[in-house]
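Can't paste images in this forum, so I'm doing it all in text. The chain is below; anyone willing to post the predicted structure tokens underneath?
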Amino acid sequence: MTDIYRGSLPTSFHIFHGHILGMKFELKPEFAALLRNNDIPSELTILEVTESLKGPLHALQEVEAEIQRLTELMETMEIRRQRIREVINDHKVILSPVRRLPPDVLHEIFFHCMPTDRNPVMKHSESPLLLTRICSSWRAIALSSPRIWSKIYIPLPGNPIYSSNYGVITDESTVSKRRQKFARVLRLRCDAVRKWLSRSEDDELPHEMFSIVLSFADRWRDIDLSMPHVIYNELQSNINATTFSSLRSLKVTLSVINRGGDTQFPQIRLLAAPSLRRIVISAEALRPGNVAEWNHITHITLTSSITSKHLLRLLRQCPNLVFGNFMTAFMLSQSEDQTVMDEDDVFLPRLETLVLYDSGTHEAMTIAYNAIKAPALTRFLYKWFKYRVHPFSGISFPPPVILLLGNSALISDLSLVGDFSTQDIRECLQRAGRITRVVFGRPPPTNTSGHHPFPPIFEDTDVVYPDQFDLRMLLIGSEPVTLLPRLEYLEIYCLSSLTDEDLLDVIKSRINAFQRGEAAALKCLKLNFQRRRQKDIKEDVIRLAREAGIEVKLDLTYQPEICEFIDRLSPSFGINASSEDVGSGWMVDE
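Text version of the structure:
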């Protein structure tokens, strides 16, 4: 019988455990052709192939048996290795450096385990309570670390703002169960707060909660209160501001549950805390109180509107003010107030940063800005909405803030947002010759999909809208007097009519003026366009800056190519990708 495999018994082979593993099998060339077609093999060929398969099949069985034996051996070795590793790890645990850390080092490590964006929550899965559940030694160290127990977040179950307006529960059994659950939760929370605060060293359940908190008043450095004003009234009745001897920062948000009738907020007694310096207050009908309560405050943020008259009255009580953030507005009660507005100067010698959201009357705000004297003011953020008694009268007044800009010669950082005309901006810049940084407008609001939440017609990038700020006025030589000769940083949003060529001309003129010694060197330009890019000017700017020996950072953003949601010819035109607006804030960093 012909053997169709050549070399089926090699001259040398590897023997392992009595099994032949090194045999080499090859198909004879005359039979390899059968693999390249579908011809029917002869009977003789079939017999030869069948006989020749016996050798490879036997060898395959030997190899598979050896693989099975080795696999079982590997599994046994893996189990043994794992057991050895466990023993080694147990030894390493004993030798672990963390077991030998002294308590003072662990105190510091525990302190850095605390949340930094908010106060700690009373949960076992979060520090500091989590640190008490590792081992007995860590628990003892955590309980003896006053710093990690010095902050706490205390929520009160329920929200009367919503519960009083969104229906009632008529089922008495449900009401009874909820009352019992509320009492049980608040009891546990009172006990937790008492234990928590006792570790910090250096109807009655809500009253008990307040009593527990107030008993540690001399230790609080930062307080953030957010509650309806009726609850705050009860809390404040037990407050003696002098006991808050360590209080440095206070944030109070008082809300109205029932807006019917006249709401009169109480004076905030905590303002009289002797060490208090920073306050953030959100409360309607806020009125400046005793002068002694304000004269030591250095940082004030009021997120609710006050009249220009009350603004001046407040500023007169804050001679040590360093940072101020205020909202002024015309109110109906203001028209009924017959008292004459005090036009005497308000001297603020330490004021460095001022943020104003201005929607008051032109006459009242003109008096206010003319009265404010802030010789140290260096940063000014101004948002202006013109108030018009008759909106369609066509009468236009210059921005009242011009007077403040003229009185504050050291302003170097200016931001303008609102109802400014090109002439308004020109007049503002003419009175601010020391400015090095300017911001016009604010980033357009965007939703989670990245699209602006406006009707699609306003996102048509082929439409050119007039720019509120004409950047070409910064061309050196375009104005009788050079505007912003010390400008280094420029940030503008929502440009449309300004071309890329015009922008390059402005940059070129400022760089050339720097080389002649007529203007400061530009350092950074951040511009947002409501159109598509016309020309890439970055290489030209880099070349001009290199020739002048300076570096200019250019950050230009343009609208992307038209998408299917705003393409008028798209079948998806008009569909909102998302309606969630996440960009409506104007955040100010103190």
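The chain has 15 helices and 16 strands. The mean pLDDT is 76.
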